Amino acid sequence: MSRALRLLPIIFVVWIVGTFAWKLVQPSDTTVRSQLVNRQVPEFSLPAAVSGVPALRSAELSTGQPRLLNLFGSWCVPCIAEAPVLEDLKRKGARIDGIAIRDTPGALGAFLDRHGNPYERIGSDQNSSVQLALGSSGVPETFIIDGKGVIRFQHIGPIKPQDVAGILAKLEEVR
Amino acid sequence: MRALAILALAIATPVFAQSNMPPSYWGYRQLHDAKQEAQAQALMLELRCLVCQGQSIADSDAELAGDMRDLVRRRIAAGEKPGDIRAWLIERYGDWVSYRPSAAPIAWPLWAAPIILLLFGGAMVASRVKRRRL
User: Fold this and answer.
1) Do B86 and B133 lie in a common domain?
2) Is the pLDDT of residue B13 over 50?
3) Which residue of A30, A103, A135 is in closest CB contact with B19?
């Protein structure tokens, strides 16, 4: 057997060990991205989540104007931190609809009273079925939807004050 | 100091917050039709939980896993094929959501590896045997 061929298994082992070592030191990314970005919002129709705020149907997301679709819950702690940021986005012209995941009218009403209501409509998703249809895996998450009802961007986790400019720019970009 | 630590534990919020709602109807119930339930079970064992990412939705107690089991059982009960439900989820979350190895071109080297290693080993043994005979 030639010398080069003998080295082959050693090179192979070094390559495997190297790959493992490299992956071990890389910080792991556990965020789950929706594959529906750049595709039409799946069809859904959700009942009103709280009295006084209209219900939400998928058709109402394609109004010719880009909109934000925010998935949240009154039981979700990061959503409390996000609430004033959403208010700020609304003040700056963003139009926001919400989907309340696994929520009750009482708890949600108290949440909106306490942290403000930036939403034009809120649909109630009792068993996360619309969340799953959207390819979302947690709260809070925000989708940017263009005027034709196509999902253009997914923001995972709470929108922080430093993200506002970026979100507004994206809304302008998909107009 | 110890009292403070215990107090901190008491007021800490869990990492994976759970809502106050009861679990979905089919999250912790079996379908009445045993054949359909078996189909649902087999599929749930091969779907990844989106929250506890090392577990299948059959194993996980995360709320979203319960909702995914509810979705699987509802659709099976409505007569949908397990393969179609898997495809529906892959369309939304990518191949990653399914534990069943994919036959996509990117996985071909993986499928070929055992055959290649076997051939390589066979060739090595054959050359040794030949050398010894000489």
Assistant:
1) no
2) no
3) A103
| Threshold 0.90, pTM exceeds | no
pLDDT exceeds cutoff 80 at A125? yes
Whether residues B19 and A36 touch (CB distance < 8 A) is answered with: no
Instruction: Tell me the pLDDT band of B55, cut-offs 50, 70 and 90.
Output: very high
> For chain B, what is the domain count?
2
Question: Smallest CA–CA separation between B125 and chain A, in Å?
Answer: 12
Q: Are A140 and A79 in contact (CB under 8 A)?
A: yes
Tell me if A73 and B51 make a contact (CB, 8 A cut-off).
Answer: no
**Distance of alpha carbon B121 from its chain centroid, rounded?**
33
- Residue A141, C-beta contacts closer than 8 angstroms, at least 6 positions apart: A70, A71, A154, A155, A156, A157
Query: What DSSP line would sit under B76-100, residue for residue?
Result: HHTT--HHHHHHHHHHHH-GGGB-S
Phi, psi values for residue A150, rounded to 5°: -100, 130
Chain B environment of A106 (Cβ under 8 Å) = none
B28 in contact with A at a CB cutoff of 8 Å?
A: no
Does B133 lie in the same domain as B90? no
First-to-last alpha carbon distance for chain B, in angstroms, is 80
Q: Which of B19, B25, B92 sits opposite A102 (nearest CB)?
A: B19
Strands of chain B, DSSP E: none
B48 is in which domain, residue-wise?
2-100
CB of A74 closer than 8 Å to CB of A111: yes
Token pair of B85, please?
A: 């439900």
**All domains of chain A, ordered by start, with CATH?**
45-173 (3.40.30.10)
